[in-house]
Amino acid sequence: MSFPADSVGLVTPQKFQFEEPLHLECDRVLPRFELMVETYGTLNADKSNAILICHALSGHHHAAGYHHEDDKKAGWWDSCIGPGKAIDTNKFFVVSLNNIGGCNGSTGPTSPNPENDNRPYGPDFPLVTVRDWVKTQAMLSDRLGVDVWYAVVGGSLGGMQALQWSVDYPDRLQKCVIIASAPKLSAQNIAFNEVARQSILSDPDFHHGRYLENDSYPKRGLILARMVGHITYLSEEAMKQKFGRDLKSGKFMYGFDVEFQVESYLRYQGEQFSRNFDANTYLIMTKALDYFDPSREYGHSLTEAMGKTKCQFLIVSFTTDWRFAPSRSQEIVDALITNHKPVSYLDIDAEQGHDSFLFPIPLYVKTMRAFLGGEEHLKSTSLEAS
Fold first, then answer.
1. Lower Cβ count inside 10 Å, N or C end of the chain?
2. Which of 91, 242, 256, 87 shows the shortest CA–CA distance to 179?
3. Annotated catalytic residue: which of 88, 203, 293, 321?
């Protein structure tokens, strides 16, 4: 198979082992852990061109390229990572990882628990936070010999990690790109996560999280959780254009099987997700979202928290994103401006809703390329602190 000219091509994941104990915010300790990592591009001599990619809820280390010659699908952010793309691997050394608690090679609920005869952790895996993830990412940075990231980039939950980086390790990144994100979840977002969790917890095949030991899997609960989540990732306009009220058979069947195209789509998305994702991981990821609030240690003042930062910021939101609305990004921008921090903000008119950050929307790509490329100004799209 010949890959596109702007693809990173075949990539091979690497597993990094950390033998030192990891103390977590929940007051538990992982005696050791592993991180699954992919890298694209070449690290320069002074290690000044490294960019860290932080993934969202269902993401993982495979952000770009292909694992096999016959792969039909590239990494989840292949549209933005590669030669000549917004995150240009001709210029940058790009690092993408699967966070702990995940289910794609890093230590998580399906990993062997050394304190329980190497049986899968299952529900015994500790709850982790965005701060815990950033801590492990900093440890990975040390292992790679990267003292300072040229940029830390993330969308959605990944944007929260980028934001946490800027507060916890202000001297270790030059630029921070936060896309379709928020400084903390709203009550509505926590509610969506709780409905998704309950769909899993109430599945008879969940077995209190010990489904692997019971040779079962809460497939129905995970399908429903994904269906609920997926609705929030799309805008009303995107669903209208994609499905409208189209019927699969062209007529009402007067039953409870799939009739509308949108029903078929949601069931397909749920089915595919249930084949590739772990239910305990889903619970952990949504809890990490709920707990995220970098202002908590600063009297719940985002302005105080942002006062710690030293890097340049690019904040991007999308007009039809109602899961993390533009007003949530504006909260971050306002806190940075109050602190006279360098920030560029762009609210992009896009119809795809929250998932817009995964698409190569021209203005979005152009803006990120300009910001990462070191251009001094983003013309009319910038909001600079004075």
1. C
2. 87
3. 321
